[in-house]
Amino acid sequence: MPSASRRLLPALGSDPARTYRLGIMGGTFDPIHYGHLVTAEQAREALDLDLVLFMPAGSPAFKQDQRVSDPEDRYAMTVLATAANAAFYASRFEIDRPGITYTVDTLGDLRAHYPDNVELYFITGADAIMDILAWHDAERLASLATLIAATRPGYDIDTAKARIAASGIDFDVRYIEIPALAISSSSIRDLVAAGKSPRYLTSESVMGYIHKNGLYLREGE
Ligand SMILES: Nc1ncnc2c1ncn2[C@@H]1O[C@H](COP(=O)(O)OP(=O)(O)OP(=O)(O)O)[C@@H](O)[C@H]1O
Ligand SMILES: O=C(O)c1ccc[n+]([C@@H]2O[C@H](COP(=O)([O-])O)[C@@H](O)[C@H]2O)c1
After folding, report:
1. pLDDT tens per residue, the chain (221 residues)?
2. Ligand 2 residue neighbourhood (C-beta within 6 Å)
3. ipTM score over 0.95, yes or no
4. How many Cα neighbours within 13 Å face the side chain of 9?
5. How far is ligand 1, taken at its centre, from the CA of residue 7, in Å?
6. What is the CATH number of domain 19-182?
């Protein structure tokens, strides 16, 4: 991993006698919303995570045929939304890596960077975990991190459980039930495009950024 990338990663505590738990909340975050923040906070508490990295994907693997906002805009909104929580850290790690963003690459780099007393926990919602068998090198991914799968309205977590159980891959998945927020980035984009208010679906700071930069003014953007 180039040294510039290493500098993008925060230090955890330096006590070699204790274990540190690092959460990674990956997403497109186009834009980030309260569903993402609640998911990460509930995961942090349930698994006693020391820090959660919010990692906007540079070039999301499953959205190659879709228009996605500039990574710098998605990162800037992530910084704004996470600023108030000392246990959250907005990371440029994936937006600064060229090429299609694969989680297995990220986790491999994090594993190489952090010492063995740092455990990795990759956080997803029920919809994302549903497709995990189709993720790039799912088998290696399973060996690099524990997965945290949170409930999400409209998605049946039991289907994901059954698929993963039948896969033959040794995933370590912790399933958590969280307060249901039926919020999605696409619904926020649609609201803005229709001239309607996304207020209380995401933070005031993110709303301010969307308006100031004229994001999502046309449908499908
Ligand atoms: N309301 C929610 N509740 C629980 N998990 C969520 C929620 N919204 C998003 N997530 C999870 O957050 C991660 C990142 O999601 P993403 O950035 O794709 O947002 P999205 O709202 O699903 O976007 P889009 O509507 O554009 O598909 C995924 O693991 C997803 O499952
Ligand atoms: O590595 C993969 O093949 C892969 C495929 C789909 C999604 N992911 C990751 O899952 C997270 C949620 O993705 P998305 O597209 O729902 O925003 C984000 O961190 C993505 O990089 C990863």
Report:
1. 655 555 578 988 888 899 999 999 999 999 999 999 999 999 999 999 999 999 999 999 999 999 999 999 999 999 999 999 999 999 999 999 999 999 999 999 999 999 999 999 999 999 999 999 999 999 999 999 999 999 999 999 999 999 999 999 999 999 999 999 999 999 999 999 999 999 999 999 999 999 999 999 976 55
2. 26-28, 57, 60-63, 101-104, 128, 135-136
3. yes
4. 22
5. 28
6. 3.40.50.620
Q: How do the domains of the chain map onto residue ranges?
A: 19-182
What number of other Cβ atoms are within 10 A of residue 206's Cβ? 24
Residue 59 alpha carbon to ligand 2 centre in Å: 9
Dist. CA 60–CA 66, nearest whole Å: 9
Could you tell which of 28, 37, 187 is best to mutate to test the pocket of ligand 1, judged by most ligand atoms within 8 Å of the CB? 28
Bond before 60 cis per omega within 30 degrees: no
The Cα 110–Cα 119 span in angstroms is: 10
Provide the 10 A C-beta neighbour count for residue 13. 11
In the reported structure, the alpha carbon of residue 119 is separated from the centroid of ligand 2 by a whole-number distance in angstroms of 20
